[in-house]
Amino acid sequence: MADCNETKNNNHCQLKQFQRNNYFYGKLMTVRDFEDEQAYMNDKRYLLNRTLHGAGIVCGFTDIAVYEEGGEVKIKFNKDGLAIDNCGREVVVPSGISKKICNKNQTKGVTVTDLGNNKYYLYIKRKDCYAEMVAAASSASGCEEKCCPNRIVEDFVVYVSDNPPTSLSCDDVKDSSNIGDCHEGNSDGVFIGSIMNLNFNSEEKLRTYIPRSILLSKRLECHIDDQNNPHKLKHSQLLEVLGIDPTRDDTVRDKHVSDADAKRWNSAIYTVNGKEPDNKGDFKILAGENITIKEGMHEVTISAESTAGYYLEYPEGVLTLKKGESVGIEHNFNRYPVVDVYEYVEERGNFVGTRDDVTNMAEITGRNTDEVAAEVEARPVHEIASTARARIRNNATLSSNLATLNRTAALRETPLTLSPIASVIADNRFADVADGLIVVNKLVYLKKVTGARGIAVEVRQLNRNRVWIRNNSGRTLRLKIILTA
Length: 485
Hints:
By secondary structure, the protein is α+β, with helices and mostly antiparallel strands. The chain has three domains: 31-206, no CATH class; 216-243, no CATH class; 298-485, no CATH class. 23% of the residues lie in helices and 30% in strands. The protein is built from twelve helices and 22 strands. It has helices spanning 31-53, 112-115, 170-175, 213-225, 235-241, 262-273, 355-365, 369-375, 381-388, 398-408, 420-424, 430-433; strands at residues 56-60, 64-69, 72-77, 81-84, 90-93, 97-102, 120-135, 147-161, 190-196, 199-201, 292-295, 300-303, 312-313, 319-321, 326-330, 338-354, 379-380, 416-418, 437-448, 457-463, 466-471, 477-484. Helix 7 packs across helix 8 (369-375). The longest helix has 23 residues, at 31-53.
């Protein structure tokens, strides 16, 4: 394509307030209105391009030739390409198109003499041009004929520079120095390669690419998971890329623990999910185990996840909180859950209860009912009555028969007391519950403390996915926490 007249600069690279047409019946539409209509949509797209994607090569630019013709140095794109310049504008290059290479100011073409034996860097930039001149429908004078461009071609220019391309350094990314401020565009083009003695070099390592999000995520996945990839990032290298220094005391740890402090975390994680580190010193917790650990100044946060919407119990069942200690529990319900906090109570004595007591103790301790029954020496209440030679009446209440047993069994170290479950049915007739009654010498049960008087346990919903619990009582509490979706 021959040289064309460049359109006026619309300041695409600068942030500005956007304006769009307001339509109403009878509105007189002028050239300015139609120009603003196009500029609004284009400039919005350019803004998103440069701020969300940046400048670089999207695809193509794989087969490029440089040659001399008519004293000028030209470039031919044998295959098509797509790039986004620093203003966010798309640079579309059809296959087979040729362009002269301009100087840095993009005012004239360069010759072989201009280049000499030096190495130069090639940049491509969008250049909108007027085209297709046609007669204007109206002019200031009816006898005067005037022509105006009928089209705007989204063309481009290729120019040389002795400055190599620049890119963000790892320090810039870690320090977030290029993230906080809004990115202002500039007139620089997109680097496509270098030229020396009419030899083109794509300089792949210096190019900046804009990959599709699917491609980007797949690349990361391949680097991390491919065991046979010689370029695979080691765990320590991956932490470095992500800006995590495993040698310092970070306030946050994720599911993987580095070699530097694996020993420090060994006992903490082992008590939660019974895992030991692998031969690299990393703890890998599989999906479904639903446990993560984060270290804070005065608390350890254990994250429990559920996708089925069922209630969640604190991992390992029981949590010990000393006076003044707190714990943060995270979940993935994504809404405020119903939280109940129970005190885990162990009492020794002689308790009259029901078989449900043994079942509940087995559930709390995570053991089977036979083991629990043997440990607490669960015996039927009829056996106790027979040993004590006490006459218990079927038409009396449980409370009345309990009094009889205590009067008769004078040799017992402690009197018989009712368990929490048995207390609920104490007023029932003995005949109705006798077959289900047992006597145990150790009782394990849960005592609800959420909202209870006398036990200062504070519960706060910090946000939709985090609950904070603090023990303000004057003693150590063993708690069981249940989050209900």
